[in-house]
Amino acid sequence: RKRQANSPFRDWYRINAFDDPDTTEDEFAYRGWHGVADLPELNRAVNQAGEEDLHPAVKRHVFAVTRRWLDPNGDGNCEDGVDGFRLDVAAEIPSAFWRDYRRFVKGINPQAFLVGEIWWEKWPVRLANPAPWLQGDMFDSVMDYRWYAAARGLFANAIPRETPTSFRNQLFQQSQGLSGDKQRGLMRLLSGHDSPRCMTSIENPGLYKYRTGLRGDSNYRIQRPGSEVRRTMKTVLLCQFTSVAAPQIYYGDEVGMWGADDPDNRKPMVWADIEYEDEASHPFGDQRASDRVQPDLDLHA
Length: 301
Hints:
This protein has eight helices and eleven strands.
C-alpha cells in the first residue's frame, strides 16, 4: 500500500486500482477473497504448459514457506518439521499449482501428508466429488463432508433424509473412483471450524450448512442440546469410528460443546478445572434460557 505501483510486490495481488496522489480520496483497491479485504487474492499466471497457475513469484514464496515448515533448519532431516498440511479452499486454486506443490513437498519429505479442503460442487445442494483431487498427483486425502451429510440424514432424520438402504447406496457411490488407500485416508469429520458442531447440527435437522444460525433461521436452536441429541451423536460416532476412513474429532466435541455456524463453533475450549459463567447471551439481544457451561465427562469417557 505504501509504495503503490512502485511496490516490488504489485504483481503478487489482483490490484483493481492504485491511489491517485493528486486527489484526497484513496482509490487503492484490490480483490479480496469473497470480498474480504483481510484476505487479498494472490495473482494468477499461465505456466509454460499453457495452464492457469499461481504467479511465479508468489509460487516461489509459497514453496519457500513450505520448505521452512517441513525442514526448519534445512539439514535434510524432517523430523523437526511438520508432518503435512491441510490446504484451505483447495478447489479455488489451479490444479497445475497443486501438482507442482505435491512434487515439491514429497521431494522434501516423501511421508508428508497433504489434505485438501474440497467442499461444494453446487452450494448448498451438492457436495463435490473429491476423486479428481485424489488420483495421486495432488492430495493424499480430503475433508470428507459427504459422509457426515448422509449420516446426519439417516441418524438425525435431517434433510435430505436417508433410509438405511439409501445411506448404504450413498457410501457405495462416494467410494467410486477412490482406491482403497484413498478411502481409508479420508479425513472424516462431524464438526469443524466452518460448520455447526455435531450436536447442534443434529438438534437442527435442516439442510446441511444452509442457514445454520439465527442470522439465517430465526427458529434455529442454539441452546445446549439434551440427552436425546447426545444419544444420537453417540450413534453417529459409532458409525464414524467403524467405517472405512480416518476419523477426526473437532476440539471440544468430546466434552459436549455445542454451537451454531461460525463464530459459535469456535468458542474457547471447555476444561474441567475452570468454572464458567452460564451461557445466556443471544446474537440479537433477545431473551433465552441460560445454559450451564461445563464439560460432559461421561461423554469424554
